[in-house]
Design goal:
Keywords: Oxidoreductase. GO terms for molecular function: oxidoreductase activity. By secondary structure, this protein is of the alpha/beta class. It has one domain: Rossmann fold (3-Layer(aba) Sandwich), CATH 3.40.50.720. 48% of the residues lie in helices and 13% in strands. Strands 3-2-1-4-5-6-7 form a 7-stranded parallel β-sheet, sandwiched between helices. Strand 5, helix 5 and strand 6 form a beta-alpha-beta unit.
Length: 266
């Protein structure tokens, strides 16, 4: 059955790919982007592809945008919009951590609460999908600002899942591995705006080498088409796993890492 699906952060990457894929599958998709140029670009791309796609501006920090979004009648909310900040958590400026949590956790929660309130009042069996991350389940060094916000999403989603079950509202997470959309690579550049060898004990060359060791490998440059195909199947489905870590080898690695944490020693 065709669904009406709202996707945030659809101006690029997974959001854009999933929006187009879901529209091609026959769903009514409201693809939202943060800024007007992204809106225009996505509208042109959908037109060029012959895809029926409604594209709207939705900046989660703009309360007028949020109020307008809450008037849309949707079946499924996909919280995909996010920003990436990283660097040593022992030295990262605190305002960058706050900004990450504001965009990646607090604003999606605010958007979600508005739709949940409406669905409960209307006795509508909606669905919420959080695009989390493998980083919501473990934290490599240098990425804690981003992964801590994703850990927060995991906690929020788990509580929502239990709270909303009595109302027929379903909750899922999708936890991508290191797919090559450019997001991870751009995020890895963020600390070099402020990291200063004359002031910080974390040295720029050491941090760059760490990021390269994580990203410049086959497992750090996975084909995003795999994840987008999975999103197109998972998002509209009324059945399936609550947590979806993709690909399988990443799920296996995350489970191994979590098991090892129980035996880790200081």
């Amino acid at each position: 059955m065709a669904k009406t699906i709202l996707i945030t952060g659809a101006g690029s990457g997974f959001g854009e790919g999933a929006a187009i894929g879901l529209a091609r599958a026959g769903h009514s998709v409201i693809a939202t982007a943060q800024v007007a140029p992204q809106v225009s670009q996505l509208r042109r791309r959908a037109q060029d592809l012959g895809v029926q796609l409604r594209v709207e501006k939705l900046d989660l920090h703009d309360h007028y945008d949020l109020a307008y979004a809450h008037t849309w009648d949707i079946d499924i909310l996909v919280n995909n919009a996010a920003i990436g900040e990283c660097g040593p958590i022992s030295e990262i400026p605190l305002d960058l951590v706050r900004r990450t949590f504001e965009t990646n956790m607090f604003k999606p929660l605010l958007l979600t609460q508005g739709f949940v309130k409406r669905w409960v009042a209307e006795k509508k069996a909606g669905k919420i999908v959080f695009i989390s991350s493998m980083g919501g389940l473990f934290t490599p060094p240098g990425y804690a600002a981003y992964t801590a916000a994703k850990h927060a999403i995991e906690g929020m989603a788990e509580s929502l899942r239990q709270e909303l079950t009595p109302f027929g509202i379903k909750v899922q997470t999708i936890n991508p591995g290191a797919y090559f959309t450019g997001f991870n690579e751009t995020m890895a550049d963020t600390p070099f705006r402020w990291l200063d060898d004359s002031k910080n004990f974390t040295k720029r060359a050491d941090l760059r080498a760490l990021f390269d060791s994580l990203l410049e490998t086959p497992s750090g440059k996975l084909d995003p088409a795999e994840l987008i195909d999975a999103m197109v199947k998972i998002i509209p489905s009324g059945e399936g796993k609550y947590r979806n870590v993709i690909p399988q080898f990443v799920e296996d690695e995350v489970k191994k890492d979590q098991a090892e944490k129980w035996e880790a020693r200081i």
